[in-house]
Amino acid sequence: MVQPAISGGSNTILDARQMIEDALLYEPEIVSILLQPHFVFSRDDQCARSPILIRISPDTWSIRWRYDFTILVASEACDALNLFHSIVNMFAILST
Question: Which UniProt keywords are present, listed alphabetically (predicted)?
Fold first, then answer.
């Protein structure tokens, strides 16, 4: 399992390459979202209960969680919430 590269304060940075590749085996439709440069997804909107910002950069394949970031920055967050559901669950397990 991938371990957090950096953990502290309200931020956690995870190396997401392996988790994303594993998730794509089960939810291949995620590819279309992951290929968008610097895709940003916030769960702090009408589709979710807790603020989590997920920033996916194809260059670094890293994901940053900012629990204090509450602004919706992606118009497709509602769709992304459904697509990323299993991945977010994996992140939650790793960050505890």
Answer: Oxidoreductase
Q: How far apart are CA 21 and CA 44, in angstroms?
A: 25
- pLDDT tens per residue, the chain (96 residues)? 333 333 333 333 344 455 555 555 655 444 444 434 334 444 444 444 333 444 444 443 344 443 322 222 333 444 444 445 545 555 555 444
Where helices occur in the chain by DSSP H, the ranges are 17-26, 31-34, 77-83, 85-95
pTM of the model: 0.24
Task: Provide the domain count of the chain.
Answer: 1
